[in-house]
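Re: the request from the purification team.
They wanted to know what the chain is likely to look like in 3D before they choose a buffer screen. I agreed to run a prediction and write the result into the notebook, where they can find it.
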Amino acid sequence: MARNFGKQKEVDVTRCPVGLTVHWFGASIPDEVKAVIPLMHASSSEVMRPCIQKAVEYLKTGILENDEDYIVFTKTLGAGDQGHMVTGIYSILRAAIGSKVNSSTIVADLKRMNVPAPTADDLGQSIVRARSQLEIAALEHRIRFPRLDKLRWRIDVSISSGSLSRVMRPSILMQMILSDGRIKTFEVSIEQFNQLRYGVAKMLREMQTLERHPIMRVQRELLKREEEERMKK
């Protein structure tokens, strides 16, 4: 009696493998990256390279300018596919820069995701060339709370109140000037100021203890070696 096992399902090499995870993307590969892989297979290197260049420029400046190369690229892909392509490559570059993983690992992981080999190599070379600039731009353009630019303070003494004719209680008037230009003024008592001072001193001590931890020294050595390898390339 013949057994019919059926035809084995063919693997589509133009799509990201199901269930694949890449640690520098986080918990899962973003949907916009999965969607752009078939478009990469349908596009030539002459189309992909201007797209990668524009994504790198957008990561640096946050501005996507229309020049001749980008107009040709837009006409070749079409309006809808052009948006998907830029978004997918932007997500790849942003995740790669944020993870601090070396370029050879990134290229190998992209090929595991079925990104065409020429495109994966071009992405790796773009990361090597522009990594330091992209890391600086990422720090400058990241979403964050306003910074403390200046702190002023003075001591006031309450001489009297509505119920007491002689109080003589000191308090501290503090003024914070933030990086966005806002000014915050508040008053704290001596007890509150001492509590704040103690909290800051405790935090600084814990940071120093953490920096002296052996695992932090190992991490600094690894980052130093990766930086030396990038400089050699």
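For the purification team: The chain has two domains: 23-141, 148-232.
Please add any questions underneath this entry.
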